[in-house]
Write a sequence for this structure.
């Protein structure tokens, strides 16, 4: 009897430990899904000039760096940057489609990294139509139980005029945004197409 | 002995309850994956004029509403609508790429909602080439153990002629499909680019 | 007492069996995520001429078949094929965006199948700009604990010159790659747009 009880105690202990491991693994699966939802939602907000909604997806100390314009540090600075972008309205197209995620989560630490890309169709009626594409190497953090963007780093691969196409020349990066100096210089210097640019990978192995 | 048995009974009970919670959370992770597969499969069928395969992904009472043409209620009406679309064949391109999902599942209820987008390349050799992009706000239901589309609602953001680009003008919505009156009027009235249009979000928070 | 112990033994046994089933289901959810990461990483490598990194994602006996050029059998042959592709550098754009996955995993067998698509923007400054789109029907295998590409099969739906658009004619498939004969003939013969082509589906039901 004592031996049987001891065996059952041991088995209960094993089951409990195994269950905790399953729960930790399940947390990673859930976090992966939540991170997908987060980045895709960001894109939908940016498309339509919903700058507050987009900014609210940043962590309190999140950073934003786009198109070689330097780093904006903190959610409110990300918000200020986003509010410098063109307003959405009649004749405006500002689509930044989000796709191709490679996501690595450390659920225990509450952090994650992901490589994404955005395929861009922008335009102003009667003025300008443009294609673009960029690579993101982003970081995320779980803050107050919700995943937030800790670092949004978008590196432009190309901008091209609709009327010409990339093979007739890329549109050079505009290195600043009107009226809003960055908090830190760019992470690295680069020029977009026709110059080659490879955004450093957060992983050696998918 | 009695105290020990009582403790073990209690622990078994806790393990069982915890396991049920894990199973419920795991169901959500599986449903997320199945919903991704479902919507992506829909896109592949639509590309190639596989209208029956596409219609079969609808729930019995599923609804379809695309491009402001009104609502078609029930799988067989969705099938009738799809069969009014251009046949696939020589010279035809009808790609509706599916991407950027924000998916929320209620596995217990067997329902889900998702925001998707489609990036469109269509054309007829010698006649017409066109770009397009639309937002979906869809609903899904688990029917006979399989996820099905309960509501497909596609809102066109823009159509543009390949030869011109969106900045030279959008292609207005054709508000009806030949020979097939809708069952209900459109959910909301809108015009595509150059008019601004923001498809209402099913979520406040990703 | 004996009856109680017997009941508890039975319950422990049930919990253990149920936990193993949960673990198996969780493995499938993790495999799904890893397969997403794998294919998306492949695309990022191909964009930037990182042929060794791309080839290293193939299983030892993996096969590669793209654009009707025949089948290359084995990782080193896939590597040889990839190294025949244009070098990345100044003026080069070679984006093969990866999207729209329908993934089915057999975790127990360590195999998987997925339908993906790629939307392609390629170009050489001053020479050529081109759009393309292809369907993949791929297979994967778990090798040494990591998912690898067992079969990469990319079927071109269209290539079109940027300056013309698909409606003015598709770019025919180049049926061979300079200096590297395939190991097996193409899986099936086809021509891209304007000819219709439907890549066979690995699934009847998503």
């Amino acid at each position: 009897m004592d031996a049987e009880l001891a065996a059952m105690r041991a088995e209960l202990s094993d089951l409990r430990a195994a269950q905790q491991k399953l729960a930790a693994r399940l947390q990673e699966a859930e976090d992966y899904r939540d991170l997908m939802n987060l980045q895709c939602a960001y894109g939908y907000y940016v498309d339509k000039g919903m700058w507050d909604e987009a900014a609210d997806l940043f962590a309190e100390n999140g950073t934003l760096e786009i198109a070689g314009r330097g780093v904006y540090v903190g959610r409110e600075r990300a918000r200020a940057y986003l509010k410098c972008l063109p307003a959405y309205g009649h004749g405006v197209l500002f689509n930044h489609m989000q796709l191709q995620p490679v996501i690595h989560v450390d659920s225990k630490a509450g952090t994650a990294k992901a490589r994404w890309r955005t395929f861009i169709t922008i335009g102003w009626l009667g003025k300008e139509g443009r294609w673009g594409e960029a690579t993101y190497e982003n970081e995320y953090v779980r803050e107050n139980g919700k995943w937030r963007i800790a670092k949004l780093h978008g590196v432009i691969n190309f901008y091209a005029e609709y009327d010409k196409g990339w093979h007739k020349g890329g549109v050079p990066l505009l290195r600043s945004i009107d009226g809003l100096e960055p908090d830190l210089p760019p992470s690295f210097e680069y020029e977009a197409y026709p110059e080659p640019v490879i955004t450093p990978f957060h992983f050696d192995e998918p």
